[in-house]
Structure to design on (116 residues):
């Protein structure tokens, strides 16, 4: 092992120790604030990118709105059906029977009398 590698290993271990000591020195609330800030920054960046993309492609926005509306309507109908309390039971099929044919009366007009 050369002197250069030994120095780099020592430097890495010192940096690791410094990071650990900083991590222990920062209160938990500061770490939470840092995580919250990172999350807000990511949300802002994502919103800006999505807004620019949707401004250039309005058809995608329209399709998304229509899809969300259809999902909302379907969920509302499902909820209504569930609340109405459909009756659960059993059914059996009754086969139709042939009824005697009825005698139909037709009204003969002047046009049919003229043909006779």
């Amino acid at each position: 092992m050369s002197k250069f590698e030994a120095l780099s290993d020592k430097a890495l271990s010192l940096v690791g120790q410094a990071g650990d000591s900083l991590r222990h020195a920062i209160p938990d609330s500061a770490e939470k604030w840092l995580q919250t800030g990172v999350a807000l920054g990511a949300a802002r960046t994502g919103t800006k990118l999505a807004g620019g993309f949707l401004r250039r492609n309005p058809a995608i926005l329209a399709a998304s709105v229509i899809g969300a509306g259809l999902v909302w309507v379907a969920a509302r109908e499902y909820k209504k059906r569930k609340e109405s309390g459909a009756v659960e039971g059993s059914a059996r099929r009754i086969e139709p029977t042939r009824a005697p044919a009825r005698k139909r009366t037709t009204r003969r007009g002047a046009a049919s009398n003229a043909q006779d």
Helices lie at 3-25, 28-56, 58-84, 110-115. The radius of gyration is 40 Å.
